[in-house]
Amino acid sequence: MPPGSWDAIALKLDKKKRKGLFFWYSISAAVVLMVATSVLWFMHKPKKTELQVSPTEQSAGNNQKAEKAIAENKSDSQDLQASKLHAPQDWHAANQPVVFPKTKVLSKGADDNKILTDQEEQPEKQNSVSSAMDLPEGFGLRTSSILSDLQDRLLPNSLPVAIKELVRKQYAWFVVAGLSGQQGSVAYSVNPANRRYVHKNYLMRMQDGEFSMGGLQFSALAGHKINSRWSLLAGVQYQQGHTRQSFDFKDEVPVTLVPGNKPDKFGNYPIIGYFAGSGSTQYQGFSATSFAEIPVGVMYEITVKKHWLLKPSLTINTGFVSSVSGNTLDYQLLNIAARNQDWFRKTTFSANAGLGIYRKLNERAQWGVSINGSSMLTQTYVPGASIRPRNQAIGLGTQFIWRLNR
Fold first, then answer.
1. Residue 286 within any structural domain of the chain
2. Are residues 368 and 289 in the same domain?
3. Does the residue 301 lie in any domain?
4. Which of 1, 13, 309, 322 has its CA 20 to 30 A from that of 238?
5. Better pLDDT: 366 or 75
6. Residue 360 lies in a domain
7. Are 229 and 294 in contact (CB under 8 A)?
8. Residue 252, helix vs strand vs coil
9. Domain with 235 in it: what CATH number?
10. 350 in the same domain as 204
11. Is 189 helix (H, G, I), strand (E, B) or coil?
12. Which pLDDT value is given to residue 63?
């Protein structure tokens, strides 16, 4: 082989290799350029807009949009209330359920600071209520919370009407005017601690010679219904009791011992014995006792028929003796003595129970009749007295009830 042949062959091979490498390098560079151009073109295509915001700017923007939505919601709730009040017949037609548009929010991840907005998909606002609802969850306002806020704002306007209606029908104020005739009696007993101060035949003589007569009772009460059945009562009443005395007897005269003994509340001393058949008493007369009382109690209402009501009642009366007149039998000497107002307690307490049937005359007025009985809870005379009288009475009366509020 001639010298230099191998060198010539190697040179030719090196030229072909260089030509092949240049070709492939050119093709690779063109592909890379095309790919890069396509990516850049797709990335910057004006189809969607990305707003880069910092976390601080996003929070401030969110707060401003939330405040604006709440302000619009307040204004719209007032408009809704006004439209409901002035045009109730159009309320249901004008407020059909609203279909709220979907709002696209970027999922949380690496790009939490991006908010995706699509102006093309933002629907036209039909009313301000739907615009207030059209907020992304990131703002902290949800559809359910806004609806609850609307209900809270709408309810107070209807509550006063309902309350007034309830007060008109059930929680009513009323007044009661009553007049009744009382047939009373007085029950006498002896204080066990002062038995020596009382004549041994006193209770028998009083039982035979004193008779209770009728009296009148006037009452004016104010009532308040606390529910559909129960009512509270309070007011004033005046009653007077009459008694007739008819004594004609002879009895023993007591002998008392003053030295070493103390008198009772009425100035009498203990009895140590009697003189037989030496005293007589004859008397015909009348006496009267008047009380001013403050009754406080309850009344229950039962509907019997459409316009008929049955009403039991119970009151506790605080009484004051207003006047005393006439005579009575002295409990030690068994002679006639003038009644003294100082014998009576300053304050007495009694209980009164009644049962009445009433007719509704109209929406506000009722009239009825009642039977009632009363009894003293405390004795009539001062505490510590030798005699303990207590008054009882039973009566039949009429009452008129007038409701104050319609």
1. yes
2. yes
3. yes
4. 309
5. 366
6. yes
7. no
8. strand
9. 2.40.160.20
10. yes
11. coil
12. 55
Label residue 126 exposed, middle or buried (CB < 10 Å: 0-12, 13-18, 19+): exposed
| pTM over cut 0.85 | no
Print the domain residue range for 192.
170-403
| Confidence label for 375 from pLDDT (cuts 50, 70 and 90) | very high
**Total number of domains in the chain:** 2
Query: Mind listing the pLDDT tens digit for each residue in 139-187?
Result: 344 444 554 454 455 444 555 555 555 555 556 899 999 999 988 888 9
Q: Which two tokens stand for residue 6?
A: 């191998």
CA dihedral 245, 250, 251, 257 (to 10 degrees): 90
CA atoms 271, 272, 274, 275: torsion sign: negative
| pLDDT value for 328 | 94
Query: Which residue carries 């070709």 as its tokens?
Result: 23
Scan for tokens 């249901």, then name that residue.
Answer: 92
Tokens representing 252 are 């023993």
| Per-residue confidence (pLDDT) for residue 77, from 0 to 100 | 52
Across 77-172, where does the E strand assignment appear? Answer: 114-117
Measured distance CA(378)–CA(65) in Å, rounded: 76
Q: Tell me which residue of 216, 198, 165 sits closest to 393, measured CA to CA.
A: 216
